[in-house]
Description:
Distance between the termini: 38 Å
Mean pLDDT: 88
Low-confidence stretches: none
Number of strands: 0
Radius of gyration: 18 Å
Structural class: mainly alpha
Order of helices and strands: HHHHHHHHHHHHHH
Amino acid sequence: MVLSFIKSERNAAVFIVLAGLLGLIFANQVSGFEESLKSIHHFAELALAIFFFYIGLELKDELTNGVFVNRKALLIPGFAALIGAMIPAGLYYLVTYSDPIASKGWAIPMATDITFALAVFTIFGSRMPRGSRQFLLAFAIIDDLLAILVIAMFLRSDVVTALIVTGSAVIGLLIPSKFAHRLQELLLPLINLIVLPLYAFSSLGIKLDTSIAAVVTSVVGIGVLLRVVGKSIGITIGAYLGSKFSKDSLSRKTYARLSVLGGIGFTVAFFVNDIVFKDQELFHKQALIASLLAALITVLIASFTLKNRQK
């Protein structure tokens, strides 16, 4: 019963949010707790290897048994993910380019959080056309794959971080297809119940010694918040371009409505933030809080756009 409960994207998202809030409360109410979380957070980062391994498994399963069996089906979500990653990264850089340290965070707004995007879709997307969930899942998986490549190739991460990200995902891709789906089923409860909640708990265990106003007026905060607009525009344009080369099963309006969900960044966004602003506490906090605000704004917009679908 517990395993069935935690396999639901909606339940998993709620559990992760609660874990993050708990970390935030403890860090601000218990003296010295923020400092003690550093060792926990380091362990949680290493545990993310399981999550990235799962992403590799999920991609392998979709390539052999799922939405990517027809390789042309990759084109629409592929273009959506690519352009949807480039535009928010570009907007972030345009806002922060004058600050060489702040501009290093250009990859933070790139990735869409699969768990939360699917959870919001489950709650509000019941009226969306058939095939909507498959498109969302497809571009979110490719989105995460692009983020993994960026972390490995462009960000100045240490050897351990690079191995965690690329190595785990590649190993997942190399698993024989007949085992991929079963492994996903075995790992999903572990990821949703322990790995991601622990990472959220330790990531959000920060002192709120900066105001929301200070965050939304900082260049880092503005750059991250622009992901809400940038992801939506990029995914919509990308889906349109992809539809020029592949059969289009969804309408332009449907792609536009689904694109809103790209504004949710959590696990991968936090992970990139940890890498690029490891030694910049203020920028790190601003990016973290801005990512949470962007996710909240996205949920509010999605609750309207997905429910109020015009036929």
